[in-house]
Write a structure and sequence with these properties.
This protein is an all-alpha fold. Helices cover 80% and strands 0% of the residues. It has one domain.
């Protein structure tokens, strides 16, 4: 897969996440956050397991213990991100959540340098801040006073950043991105259900009421989107992937306009344009600079 195709795969993941945000928020009317996370990723595990088994059957190499440990750690990070985001939605606004989650765009290149000494292409730094500015404008250009939910959402952004960095390292190294995805789903589902059993009331009526949201978030914005993320990140860096995945904000606004009749103000349109500019800069400028540095 070429880097350009991988970036398109990441854009598709961003689109599926953008469509899934409504499901995440409306499900909270019937379920606690941990139960929703657990059920969502149980569905994701079951939906993608046949593809992981097929990938394993066609692989010529076995996964090592270190691979499985890494996959499990990525599952823990996924649970941390999903649980803190869902819990944050209880006490923060959708506007604040959308912007604060997008902080991962800036966190990823910094953490990649700190953890792995992996320096991104120079264009990634300004592009990350341009994308963050776009998310800021898209979310309304203002934050209410920070609540507990806001701080939980900032923690969520940190978990997402770490998850992207470790996926970028281990999806390519293991050559088993679908197995990685399904393992992280299973770990996340187990942690979510165990936490829900300990902390939340579990009612069959609530599960039935939220079944459409659980199924959509499990199969599409969960199983398919996160698997596309793992596949796409085999062929690009974590910093570049973060910028492409930030298109989630643009798609959320687009689908909100299409299906809910929402309309963006002028600042929101400028925000969409900035995110699109950042994506195009990361896609076009690095190979352009490489050609210029080639033999004359």
């Amino acid at each position: 897969m070429s880097r350009s195709v991988a970036n398109l795969v990441l854009l598709l993941a961003g689109a599926l996440w953008g469509m899934g945000f409504v499901a995440q928020s409306t499900a909270m009317d019937a379920l606690g956050p941990f139960l929703f996370v657990g059920l969502r990723f149980l569905v994701a595990t079951l939906a993608m397991l046949p593809f992981a088994l097929r990938e394993s059957a066609g692989s010529k190499t076995l996964l090592s213990r270190s691979d499985w440990r890494a996959f499990g750690l990525i599952g823990i990070l996924l649970f941390g991100g999903m649980a803190s985001q869902q819990a944050g939605l209880l006490t923060t606004t959708v506007t604040n959540s959308g912007f604060l989650t997008g902080l991962y765009v800036v966190m990823v290149p910094f953490l990649a340098v700190i953890i792995y000494r992996q320096w991104p292409h120079p264009v990634v730094w300004p592009a990350a801040f341009v994308a963050l500015a776009g998310i800021w404008l898209l979310s309304g250009g203002a934050l209410a006073g920070l609540t507990v939910g806001d701080w939980l959402t900032i923690l969520c952004a940190l978990f997402w950043a770490l998850q992207m960095i470790f996926i970028a390292r281990h999806a390519a190294g293991s050559g088993r991105p679908i197995t990685l995805a399904v393992t992280q789903f299973a770990v996340c589902a187990g942690l979510g259900l165990a936490t829900a059993l300990a902390l939340e009331p579990i009612r069959l009526a609530g599960i039935i009421a939220a079944a459409p949201e659980i199924l959509y978030a499990g199969v599409f914005s969960g199983g398919i989107a996160f698997t596309l993320q793992a596949v796409g990140q085999r062929y690009t860096t974590a910093s570049q992937a973060a910028i492409f995945l930030s298109s989630e904000s643009v798609f959320a606004a687009l689908f909100g306009a299409m299906f809910l009749g929402e309309r963006l103000p002028a600042a929101g349109l400028v925000g969409c344009a900035l995110i699109l500019f950042a994506i195009l800069a990361v896609e076009i400028l690095p190979p352009l600079f490489l050609r210029r540095r080639g033999p004359a």
